[in-house]
Automatic annotation (TrEMBL):
Belongs to the NAD(P)-dependent epimerase/dehydratase family. It catalyses: UDP-alpha-D-glucose = UDP-alpha-D-galactose. Its cofactor is NAD(+). The lineage of its organism: Bacteria, Bacillati, Actinomycetota, Actinomycetes, Micrococcales. One of its GO terms (biological process) is galactose catabolic process via UDP-galactose, Leloir pathway. Keywords: Carbohydrate metabolism, Isomerase, NAD. This is UDP-glucose 4-epimerase.
Length: 326
């Protein structure tokens, strides 16, 4: 069994590649390196540099590597920036997903795990988000992920009576942090953990983007989930699809216990032993007040669990980033 990981040279994708290899599922990586790093791809894993928008390349990669399923991680993942770059976001995330599905159909590949996002829910008005909650994305990024889910759903309907009906699931996850491999770390210029780490390494004061949210301490509240747990859930989803086992169309990979940005900052100071008081800046557009989700369905079907404390999330991420700086 061979699985193509689009975006497999990125932070999350590279962890999924390692988890696939550990499970005996042969990964293949397709990545244009716009935000990924070739050095994150393990030795011996086939790597194709190119864009998911290149239909011929995607189909060729599927055929030449005997791919039986796709884990579609590639995409433009910055909710705040997507407000300023909606057309780019839709091109990468909507058209990119359409092209991947088209290439899969041409190559006879009928399994896909889609990396979706909690951003499809927008700002929920419930304490805990469940999969059937109405979808009200608050940014072009969230909208593009929801459209991606629709594309996959519609293609499954269209192929239901064919020789290769599309089997699929979408994993909606939240703030992915930490590191499961000391050689791989989050290099995003927009995510909270790397922003704090870079500031501490440079001797700058970390920033909090907004302290006037409708939350107990004024900073927004999120699920924070460890990247190794995220990768493991993708592998189990791939195995269920490959084995023809029942699977839901979507799962929340949530912690059920939200943490505020201030609580994260406190853990950062505690674990890194760098004493600091964060600087407060203006809110970023597209950031909701609170999103916390259950992971009950994923726990039932995908062996989903939160196996790391907040201090372990910080510690593993900090150690990987410091190693890269050495």
């Amino acid at each position: 069994m061979s699985w193509l990981v689009t975006g497999g040279a990125g932070y999350i994708g590279a962890h999924i590649v390692r988890a696939l290899s550990a499970a005996g599922l042969s990964p293949v990586v397709l990545d244009d390196l716009s935000s990924g790093h070739e050095g994150f791809v393990p030795d011996g894993v086939p790597f194709v540099r190119g864009s998911i928008l290149d239909r011929d390349l995607v189909e060729q990669t599927l055929r030449e590597n005997g791919v039986t399923g796709v884990i579609h991680v590639a995409g433009y993942k910055y909710a705040g920036v997507s407000v300023k770059r909606p057309l780019h976001t839709y091109a990468q995330n909507v058209e990119g997903t359409r092209v991947v599905l088209e290439a899969m159909a041409a190559a006879g590949v009928a399994n896909i795990v889609f990396s979706s996002s909690a951003a499809v829910y927008g700002t929920p008005d419930v304490a805990l988000v469940t999969e059937d909650l109405p979808k009200r994305p608050a940014s072009p990024y969230g909208e593009s992920k929801l459209i991606g889910e629709w594309l996959i759903r519609d293609q499954a309907v269209a192929t239901a009576e064919s020789d290769a009906p599309l089997r699929h699931t979408s994993l909606r996850y939240f703030n992915v942090v930490g590191s499961g491999d000391p050689t791989v770390y989050d290099t995003s210029p927009h995510n909270l953990f790397p922003l704090v780490f870079e500031a501490l390494i440079d001797g700058r004061t970390p920033k909090i983007f907004g302290d006037d949210y409708d939350t107990p301490d004024g900073t927004n509240v999120r699920d924070y989930v460890h990247v190794a747990d995220i990768a493991a859930a993708h592998v189990v989803a791939a195995q269920r699809l490959e084995g023809g086992e029942p699977i839901e169309p979507a799962y929340n990979l949530g912690s059920q216990n939200g943490l505020s940005v201030k609580q994260i900052m406190d853990a950062m100071a505690r674990v890194t032993a760098v004493d600091f008081t964060p600087e407060v800046s203006a809110r970023r557009p597209g950031d909701p007040d609170r999103i916390v989700a259950t992971g009950d369905l994923a726990a039932r079907d995908l062996d989903w669990a939160n196996r790391f404390t907040v201090d372990e999330m910080v510690r593993t991420g900090w150690e990987a980033r410091r190693r890269a700086a050495e």
